[in-house]
Amino acid sequence: MAADFDVVIVGSGFGGAVCAYRLSKAGARVLVLERGRRWGPKSFPRKPEDPWLWDDRRPVACHGWFDFRVFPNMSIVQGAGVGGGSLVYANISVNARKDTFDQGWPEGITFESLVPHYQEVGRMLGIAPVPVAQWPERTRLLREGASRIGFPDRFERLDLAVRFDEGWTYGQADPHDHDHAVMSANAFGIEQGTCVHLGNCVIGCDVNARNTLDLNYLAGAERLHGAEIRSLHIVRHVAPSPNGYEVRYEKIADGSLKPGHVTASKVVLAAGSLGSTEILLRSRQEGLLPLVSERIGHSWSSNGDFLTPALHFLRRPPVEPTRGPTITAAIDLLDGAYRGKDIFIEDGGLPNIGREWLQRRAAEEA
Fold it and tell me: Which of 54, 59, 140, 268 is the most exposed place for a label (fewest CB within 10 A)?
């Protein structure tokens, strides 16, 4: 008996979405299994009672936007939904440096081999920097910081997977009104707007200005090339089968977890460093994949981020962390120019969840 699909892809983030698009475009029968739900401007969490959190211990009750994991020496935040990590990341697109590949990579993956693919991904995600006329004050503050530490030439605007309208400015009347977003259909027929600097990037853009994977790679795979995407499917195990592999999952439906399985000639685990590792370890523990390496889960590390708040009460114009894209620019010192340390300094904004909630309450009571 033939397998149900040529390829089953577990996860719909940056790894899974690109695989789904390319393989389905090449003619493969592709199924994407995603643990989270489909999100959109009408369902993004905003109110305290909205589905903010994912809890793998209670996924029926808690299948929300963020998956927080707290370990003794590590805390993690992950996206949960169709689009994976692209739903909650800060939009930036930075190519890896050449020296990144000096150790720890297979011979076939090199800086030179990836250059054309960076360009193609940039095209698919529509990357562009924030127009200079639209810089929030914290972008200017970062540029000043680069000069003050003696590295003015290391300040750079970052490419973002965000749609911008060159005509928008902070100086126009009520600049953050949704009506200022220029709406149009993207290449895959999905309506998107342009950025009006709402500051809500990491909790979902109300005008769909962010080019998250559900709006491009996944939309193309599903709408143009026949891939199937099933949300709310939590993959638990992978096991060999006569025609390839059997992927065993639990589906969130009707207030319960319903077990099921599907077969494929090939399986791509793209559930993130945590999710893919957990699936492999569970499958090995159950004796389903006994040859999985004993090194799985070792040498796992964070991305080295340090988040530092800074207050600038007296600066004029004021620095508003809740306006503008979450990250806009950087000071690139990754060559060790500052005291021999590899450092990449970015500005950082955050959504004003409290303001959003108060505005909604006022509108409801009006």
Answer: 140
Tell whether 195 and 235 lie within a shared domain.
no
Question: Does one domain contain both 50 and 75?
Answer: yes
* Dihedral, CA of residue 167, residue 172, residue 176 and residue 177, to nearest 10: -100
Q: Which of 148, 143, 158 is nearest to 338 (CA)?
A: 148
**In this prediction, what percent of the chain has a pLDDT beyond 70?**
97
Q: State whether 239 and 325 are in the same domain.
A: no
The CA–CA distances, whole Å, from 82 to 153, 265, 272 equal 39, 23, 13
Quick: pLDDT tens for 196-216. Answer: 999 999 999 999 999 999 999
Helix or strand holding residue 11 (H, E): none
The span from the CA of 15 to the CA of 205, in Å, is: 22
pLDDT tens for 290-307 read 999 999 999 888 888 888
Q: Does any domain span residue 119?
A: no
- Spatial separation of the C-alpha atoms in residues 53 and 49, rounded to whole Å: 11
Strand duo 66-71 + 74-79: pairing: antiparallel
Structural domain range at position 236: 1-91+210-300
For residue 98, being part of any structural domain is answered with no
Q: Is there a single domain that holds both residue 197 and residue 313?
A: yes
Neighbours of 53 (CB within 10 A): 16
Whether the predicted model's global pTM rises above the 0.85 cut? yes
Q: Quick one: 267 and 235 in the same domain?
A: yes
Per-residue pLDDT tens digits for 171-199:
999 999 999 999 999 999 999 999 999 99
Q: Please list, in sequence order, all residues whose beta carbon lies within 8 angstroms of the beta carbon of residue 217, skipping any fewer than 6 positions away.
A: 17, 18, 20, 21, 124
Structural domain includes residue 105: no
The distance from CA 284 to its chain's CA centroid, rounded to whole angstroms, is: 29
